[in-house]
Amino acid sequence: MKHLLASTALILSLALPAAAQDYAPDPNAKAGGSIVLTYKDDVATLDPAIGYDWQNWSMIKSLFDGLMDYVPGTTTLRPGLAESYEISPDGLVYTFKLRPGVKFHNGREMTAEDVKYSLDRVTNPATQSPGAGFFASIAGFDAAGEGGLSGVEVVDPQTVKITLTRPDATFLHVMALNFSFVVPKEVVEAEGADFGKKPVGTGAFKLTEWTLGQRLVFEKNPDYWIAGVPYLDSFTVEVGQEPVVALLRLQNGEVDIPGDGIPPAKFQEVMADPVQAERVVKGGQLHTGYVTMNVTQPPFDKVEVRKAVNMAINKDRVVQIINGRAVPANQPLPPSMPGYTRDYGGYPYDVEGAKKLLADAGYPDGFETELFVMNTDPNPRIAQAIQQDLAAIGIKATIQSLAQANVIEAGGAGTAPMIWSGGMAWIADFPDPSNFFGPILSCAGAGEGGWNWSKYCNEALDAKAVEADSMFDPAKSEERLKLWSDVYMGVMDDAPWAPVFNEERYTMKSERLGGADELFVDPVSIPVNYDYVWVKE
Amino acid sequence: MAAYLIRRLLVSALILLGVSFITFVLLYVLPADPVRQIAGRSATAETVENIRRELGLDRPFLIQYGRYLAGLVQGDLGRSYLQKTEVAELIASRLPATLLLMLGAIAAELALGLTLGIVAALKRGTMLDQTLMMTSFVTVSAPQFVVGLLLLYVFAVKLGWFPIGGYGSFAHLVLPALTLGILGSGWYSRMMRSSMIEVLRADYVRTARAKGLGRARVVLGHALPNAILPIIAMIGIDIGIFMGGIVVVESVFGWPGIGQLAWQAIQRVDIPIIMGVTLVSAFAIVLGNLLADLVAPLIDPRIKLK
């Protein structure tokens, strides 16, 4: 996990050319060829300001670029459309020097005006971008609208200056988020709301066909600014395919990657077959599955009760339910996230200890409560296992198995005493520990409709989090991670969650696909980094 | 006839208005907020409120419904909340596939159902009859997801006779149409059997036999046209039954129809798409029934439209 820690040292690369710390290309990689991926659902949109699901996320990454990017297969930042950048000593001004000669798919050269237009657009309320909030540290964000952001200035066609209202250690990650990707003004204005169907960017691939409900074809951008990339001539995404059918087609040699993964019912069968198992790449994921407890209502307003729940859940058994496709978790952060506390043991599985804590809290005979869960497999089965574990210490939990939207609604409204997060669990937007706190554990997220379903609010920890995120200086990155580690340990002391497991990713690929394993479990591109994979024959 | 048609069309319009109102109410009271689906996980409270305002979802129910109706009468089904695409375009791009699948399914169920029904009627009381009726009972109750996967596995994966899902050629149509058709064929074979048995007892069939006509002539020329009448009326109703099945079948076979569109929209609480698909389906059912009623007197002059 060394490369993960390196992400915090990214600012050391200040003003270095990208190549210096870049990805070492696969020496065996060959150009040419095409691959086929499948998905069950049609792609919602390819507009980088709007698209926000794990299916379109990586496609948008291949169509567009941001000022910053990640080294393929890692969480290490590298410059993207920006050739270099400088940060002012107070951490408030970022000056990005753009790479010259980068062209949009329509042939026009990308300039600083486009960068400003794209940031103005994503923060303009009329755009309805779900990611607008990520840009809150940019000056003028509160007044964003038709007039644009006052904090984003075009110095010259190759230089953009961005002024912040507060130091923000995550800002370079935000500049690598899809929401910040650069779009050409004239095309966006000509297409209007249809831009998401007819995207034009600077990325390694361009969209050449989208037959609604059937397929999308992405073709190589021959003028891409990274020489030799991408390797593939094209990739086709076929939609409307059941995961089970996609697997059959992969076994038949018709599909290269089933985008929805290996269906749970088929997992053991695939892994038991050495030929098939060999084509499965396993990797970590910036994901944590947890049980939230609403701390504003009895009985979960008592910390002893919440700790008892933490000690009652047999996490190993829950992991078995999902065929071992996860590792037990003891804290909010996943192990592959910088800031993860390695020497923390978490609450042990201890039924007697849990019973004692319940008795101390004044519930010697337990109590009745409700456990909300999303109604798709394997989540109801996981909830049943948790229900049995809770019953063993006297807590009688009724399972409320609902559609995803309804569980999210109940969580946001604070009407769910307990929620198993499966199917809606937190997967990081960007690989930084702050991303696991703001929306799901901070006071700001605890408001009506927020994703902090425990309604947990510890102002001392909130202040610590703000302090950590103001430490933009790379020399202090270790100190910053220590501070984040402290924040999450503070969370565990209050135990608003019972962390249960961190899911692992299993990507299945066809025999003919080449490329390092890291590319198939790329932490920021799910299922794969399309720009760097290649075909063997 | 003209008066009948006008009255039926008016009633149809009222039915559609009712469907639109009920669906809109149901979606309005649904304990799931479309705005949160769009806003995703990291959105701030301001972002959520902003999106709500931009979509007009902060307005009172009647105003929202009024706006929708105002668009509807101008033929505007609105834009998808998530995809931002015109709902009319989304439906238009998928409707041909669904109509093709329905046609295929109707052909399959009639071919299977009528043949089996006639055979069962002619062999009434025999082992064959009982086996066929038992089979029809199984096919009517078999879950389409399972039937679809079974057909796919045997005929596409193992035997390789048909492509493994997808859309585009006649070969792609066979298995999904058969999956839907097998369900319907169960109903049709039972109906055809009883209808046929009744007709075979009729005087004119006895007369036909008495004057020495061949067995095939009697069955196909005299009995069948009369026995098939009640079946015709069923096809119109079938369209409604199919609407439920296509969601499953389209998903198993990767068939790009409106069933898939509806299913995804429901998952994502994309109200304009759900409304659009519901109205188009309701329209198809209303139209199907109307056509069945209009066709009936052409086949059987005894039926009069009032």
What does this protein look like?
The complex is a heterodimer of chains A (537) and B (306). Chain A has 537 residues and is α+β, with helices and mostly antiparallel strands. In chain A, 27% of the residues lie in helices and 20% in strands. Chain A is built from 17 helices and 22 strands. Chain A has helices spanning 2-5, 54-63, 112-123, 171-174, 185-191, 243-251, 264-272, 274-277, 303-312, 315-321, 351-360, 379-392, 404-413, 438-441, 459-469, 477-494, 517-520; strands at 34-39, 68-70, 77-79, 82-87, 93-98, 152-156, 159-163, 205-211, 215-220, 234-239, 257-258, 280-283, 287-293, 326-328, 367-374, 395-402, 418-420, 426-427, 497-503, 505-508, 513-514, 534-535. The longest helix of chain A has 18 residues, at 477-494. Chain A is globular and about 70 Å long. Residues 1-20 of chain A have low confidence and may be disordered. Chain B is mainly α. Helix content of chain B is 78%, strand content 0%. Chain B has 13 helices and no strands. Chain B has helices at residues 2-29, 34-39, 45-54, 61-73, 87-122, 127-141, 144-158, 170-200, 203-210, 215-227, 229-253, 258-267, 271-299. At the A-B interface, α6, α13 and α14 of A face α2, α3, α5, α7 and α11 of B. Chain A: Residues 77-447 form the Solute-binding protein family domain.
